[in-house]
Specification:
The structure holds 2 protein chains of 2 kinds. By secondary structure, chain A is an all-alpha fold. In chain A, helix 1 (23-43) runs antiparallel to helix 11, helix 3 crosses helix 4 and helix 5 (145-163) runs antiparallel to helix 6 (168-185). Chain A has one domain (2-375). The two termini of chain A are 18 Å apart. Chain A has helices spanning 23-43, 52-71, 74-98, 118-136, 145-163, 168-185, 189-208, 219-229, 238-251, 263-266, 278-310, 315-339, 357-375; strands spanning 100-102, 105-110, 115-116. Chain A has a 3-stranded antiparallel beta sheet. In chain A, strand 2 (105-110) and strand 3 form a beta hairpin. Chain A is globular and about 55 Å long. Chain B is α+β, with helices and mostly antiparallel strands. Chain B has a domain at 60-248: Penicillin-binding protein 2a (Domain 2), CATH 3.90.1310.10. Chain B is built from 26 helices and 21 strands. Chain B is elongated. Classes of the chains: A mainly alpha, B alpha+beta. Chain A: It is a multi-pass membrane protein. Chain A: This is Peptidoglycan glycosyltransferase MrdB. Chain A: Belongs to the SEDS family. MrdB/RodA subfamily.
Chain lengths: 379, 647
């Protein structure tokens, strides 16, 4: 039995596990989230409601979940990977049929106390199943076409379901996240070159489909791309958001306009200032110093994850940790690119900072797995 | 599950390598993000800071108070009165329809206005107060104040409304203000920002329009911080504007009132001018209208009534009406002939009642003829043949030159609307304008102020003032702007022989003081106030030979439109002229019967600075005059319903 191979005697057990948590990572997560509380307090005009307080509660809930997950041995999670993956597919199908429509897309299931976005959850379960798959797969088979086709299928099914919602941003993140895991597992270069070529061809096809009856993405998605390419084209319509975001960010200067002094957010020129565009508020009020500090914290989280993964000789734990770190990276990289005008507006929140329950909880689940891998690493 | 132990080391090495590649790519991307951040926040910071300021700061204009207008004695003519309007703010009202229904129960609201307000409420931002009723009176305001709890979002606001306390008396002089129209804006090259304020009012006609730049003032400005939908968050600073300049007219409001009263009922115009300095003491046209109606937004029915009236109440006939001057033009011809040395005062022509010129017969108004007529007789009895003879010898160019020296054919520089230039014809003019050669008959017609000659009442007053003063006096309407005296209308001497002028004045004196004068019936008998004048009757139709054979029909038998215009010009006192008066009564009949009595009454009123004593009038007229005075004393200009009580 595989779990017997772990040296149980040197692996901490019981309440002592808490001592073996990756505490610096916990501190980093708390620091990043604190940026969130601070900014949510500010954009509410100096008030704990309606955003800062719920966000704080969710973070505490998230921490609890993280600790709980961290206490469970990593092999148990590995064994649950298939179940988790299938579960998230079921939820994605449920959204397809019963989901609530928000912003022109079906994205969540209302559970009463919170809105569950299965697409968020899928980001973690997809990494889990891929990590488990490569953990089980003999290394010499990694690059064989049949054994490459299986993980590709595992990625494509949820990606397709998410794309149907339609949520272009998340489906791209799923593909990139899954692809990165395959790359880490050692799949041959040639496959990635092939996929990239195919990707470029697809993008061309999407643009070619515009205005025809087989149009592949929605009009609003096309408009977002247009707006990204030239925001000044439509300064009062779709381009308004990105233009205002850039103004807020740029007007911050070196040290910012001061806490709760950002005119762009205080006077509501900023759209979605508590969710996807919260980074611009931060940049406006704390300037380059503040924005760069947050980027630094994110970078440190990645560094801690990568070093934990490299120090872990368990293949599942290692791939999982790197995959979750990559997912986390994709979150903030896409969000920051988007608000700085480097990427189209695709609706990706700033991890741990943007207001929102689903993303926060899913990320904390992910970091719970990272912690579990860290605690239960072979010694 | 079996762990392939042999693979582990190799797999781990490969994964470490790939992890470092992925990590490196991520680090590289983060570096890119940091650079982008630095570029936007450090290098481009100033640009974005400026854009942020532009976003948040709005300039709101503070409309200046419009300059007020007073008469020469300080009587208010155009003032800014506080006025109340009721506004409704959607976000405070909650249920707009319910509040409007309750409001309607408290004060009466115009349905049309209410419909417009409803539409506007739907369109505008919720915090924007929309005017529900304009120009409401104080009782309505108090009624709303009492019912405040039931009327959330309803606020009475105080503003300034242009009011004309003297109403119709000054309608043609002052004009009126109204909201800026798209047409107004289209005429301006770079319109003042103020004009874009909704409901901002500018002068539309008359002094209000011509001196708009003085009256309007300069806008103040408030810099305010606004949010994304334009709601005002706070005021950052404010710069006060400059209120419009006050004007003082040369007009005497009481004399103006008398003039309007005296002309009431006719389609007529009259001008009273100071012969020494050109001050216009009164300048009126009848019928008139209430300019206050236009400020409040005139109803279609009221407007239709004004435009459909055949007496043309909207026209400022005193300056824009042009009429054949008729016999009042004879002074011009007489002076031209004297100046040319053509005749002496005692030279005579024989008037047989008509004159044959190149096969065409030109009639004197007196069919039986005047016999031998000298200068004085020709003016006193208004002999036409005398002037036909003079004109034949003078030629049109000399006559026109003299008329121009006396101010005819010249557009007077006073700030009223559509001031007419009139017409003093020349041969060149006819060739150009009509494409016809000048014929001798045209000269003959011109000599008695018929044919092509056209003059406005204002021009006739200027002509008379110039004859009386011997100087090229020009009319002045604005006495002071912001307390600063404006240039006087005094002019240099005309350069005419003083003897000639004296002869003409003397002849005019006998028109209204000699028993045979055409205006003897309208003489003034008060010593030191005697007037010298000239009647004029200008035809508006041709009298055919057939008609003349059958006997010219009297004016009373003709339809109004075909009756002659009655004119009279005079100056007084004869010994030391102070004022010149011109009166034109459209289709009034004869100058001596219709215009002269009006001019005499206005002259006396002006000379006495109020109601003249009855003994200034000839004895047999006094009873009639007393009745007239009693009647006119009750005359009030129309000034709109609520300003009447104050006036």
């Amino acid at each position: 039995m595989s779990f017997l191979e772990y040296n149980v005697k040197t692996t901490p057990s019981g309440i002592r596990k808490v001592l073996y948590l990756n505490w610096p990572l916990v501190l980093l997560l708390t620091a990043v989230s604190s940026f969130g509380f601070l900014m949510l307090y500010s954009v509410a005009g100096g008030s704990m409601t309606p955003w800062a307080e719920p966000q704080l509660k969710r973070y505490i809930l998230g921490l609890t979940v993280m600790f709980f997950i961290a206490m469970v041995p990593i092999w148990l999670w590995r064994n649950l990977s298939v179940l988790a993956y299938l579960g998230s597919l079921v939820l994605l199908l449920a959204v397809e049929f019963f989901g609530a429509v928000g912003m022109g897309a079906q994205r969540w299931i209302d559970l009463g106390f919170m809105r569950l976005q299965p697409s968020e959850l899928t980001k973690i379960t997809l990494i889990m199943i891929l990590a488990a798959y490569y953990d089980a797969l003999p290394l010499n088979k990694t690059s064989r076409p049949l054994w490459v086709a299986i993980p590709v299928l595992l990625i494509i099914v949820p990606t397709f379901l998410v794309l149907r919602q339609p949520d272009l941003g998340t489906s791209l993140l799923l593909m990139i996240g899954g692809g990165t895991v395959m790359f880490l597992a050692g799949v041959h270069w040639a496959y990635f070159v092939a996929v990239l070529t195919a990707g470029i061809a697809t993008v061309t096809a999407v643009f070619q489909s515009r205005g025809t009856d087989w149009q592949l993405i929605k009009d609003y998605q096309f408009r977002r791309i247009d707006t990204f390419l030239d925001p000044s084209n439509d300064p009062l319509g779709a381009g308004y958001h990105i233009t205002q975001a850039k103004i807020a960010l740029g007007s911050g200067g070196w040290t910012g306009r001061g806490y709760m002094q950002g005119t762009q957010s205080r006077l509501n020129f900023l759209p979605e200032k508590h969710t996807d565009f919260i980074f611009t508020t931060l940049a406006e009020e704390f300037g380059f110093v503040g924005a760069f500090s947050l980027l630094g914290l994110y970078a440190l989280i990645i560094v801690f994850c990568v070093s934990s993964a490299l120090a872990n000789r368990d293949r599942f734990a290692s791939i999982l940790t790197l995959g979750i770190a990559t997912t986390f990276f994709l979150f903030f990289a896409v969000n920051m690119s988007m608000v700085m005008g480097l990427a189209p507006v695709v609706g990706v929140p700033l991890p741990l900072v943007s207001y929102g329950g689903s993303a926060m909880l899913v990320l904390m689940v992910g970091f719970g797995l990272v912690q579990s891998a860290h605690i239960h690493r072979p010694r | 599950m079996k762990r392939p132990g042999k693979d582990t080391a190799a797999g781990f090495r490969k994964m470490s390598r790939r992890a470092l590649i992925v990590g490196g790519a991520q680090a590289g991307f983060m570096g890119l993000l940091a650079l982008r951040m630095r570029y936007m926040q450090v290098e481009e910071a100033d640009k974005f800071r400026l854009l942020a300021e532009e976003n948040r700061i709005n300039i709101r204009l503070i409309p200046p108070a419009r300059g007020e207008i007073f008469d020469r004695n300080g009587v208010p003519i155009a003032v800014n009165d506080p006025s109340y309007r009721i506004t409704l703010t959607r976000e405070d009202a909650g249920d707009v329809d319910a509040v409007l229904a309750r409001l309607q129960a408290v004060v009466s609201l115009d349905d049309e206005e209410l419909e417009r307000a409803r539409a506007e409420l739907k369109r505008t931002q919720p915090f924007f107060p929309v005017t529900v009723a304009d120009q409401v009176d104080w009782t309505d305001v108090t009624r709303i104040a009492v019912n405040t709890p039931a009327l959330p979002g309803v606020t009475p606001e105080v503003g300034l409304t242009r009011t004309y306390p003297r109403g119709s008396d000054f309608a043609h002089v002052i004009g009126y203000v109204g909201p800026v129209s798209d047409y107004d804006l289209s005429k301006m090259e770079a319109p003042d920002q103020l004009l874009l304020i909704p409901r901002f009012q500018i002068g539309k006609v008359g002094v209000e329009s011509k001196l708009e730049d003085d009256l309007r003032g300069k806008a103040g400005a408030r810099r305010v911080e606004v949010n994304h939908i334009g709601r005002e968050m706070r005021e950052l600073d404010r710069r006060e504007g400059q209120q419009g300049r006050d004007l003082q007219l040369t007009i005497d409001a009481d004399l103006q009132n008398y003039l309007q009263a005296r002309l009431d009922g006719e389609s007529a115009a009259a001008v009273v001018m100071d012969v020494r300095n050109g001050d216009l003491l009164a300048i009126g046209s009848a019928p008139s209208f209430d300019p206050n109606l236009f400020v409040r937004g005139i109803s279609v029915a009221d407007y239709r009534a004004l435009t459909d009236n055949k007496y043309r109440p909207l026209a400022a006939k005193a300056v824009q009406g042009i009429y054949p001057p008729g016999s009042t033009f004879k002074m011009v011809v007489a002076l031209a002939a004297l100046d040319a040395g053509l005749v002496g005062p005692e030279d005579t022509y024989y008037c047989p009642g008509h004159l044959e010129v190149s096969g065409r017969r030109f009639h004197c108004w007196k069919g039986a003829g005047h016999g031998h007529v000298n200068l004085e007789g020709s003016l006193r009895e208004s002999c036409d043949v005398y002037y036909y003879e003079l004109a034949l010898e003078l030629g049109i160019e000399k006559i026109t030159a003299m008329s121009n020296r006396l101010g005819l054919g010249e557009r007077m520089d006073i700030p009223m609307s559509a001031v007419a230039a009139g017409l003093t014809p020349t041969k060149a003019w006819k060739r150009e304008a009509r494409g016809q050669e000048w014929v001798i008959g045209d000269t003959v017609n011109s000599s008695i102020g018929q044919g092509y000659v056209l003059a406005s009442p204002l021009q006739l007053a200027v002509m008379t003032a110039r004859i009386a003063s011997g100087t090229a006096v020009t009319p002045r309407l604005i006495k002071k702007i912001n307390g600063i005296e404006q240039p006087s209308g005094e002019g240099p001497p005309l350069g005419l022989n003083e003897n000639h002028l004296r002869q003409v004045r003397k002849s005019m004196y006998s028109v209204s003081n000699n028993r045979r004068g055409t205006a003897y019936g309208s003489r003034i008998i008060a010593e030191g106030f005697r007037m010298a004048g000239k009647t004029g009757t200008s035809q508006v139709r041709n009298i055919t030979a057939k008609e003349r054979a059958a006997g010219v029909r009297s004016n009373a038998d003709l339809p109004w439109e075909r009756r002659d215009h009655a004119l009279f010009v005079d100056f007084a006192p004869y010994e030391d002229p102070r004022i010149a008066v011109a009166v034109v009564i459209e289709h009034g009949g004869g100058g001596s019967s219709a215009a002269a009595p009006v001019a005499r009454d206005i002259t006396l009123q002006a000379l006495y600075g109020g109601e003249p004593p009855l003994d200034a009038y000839p004895t047999k007229d006094r009873n009639r005059i007393r009745e007239l005075q009693n009647r006119l004393r009750d005359y009030n200009p129309s000034t709109g319903k609520d300003s009447k009580s104050r006036a």
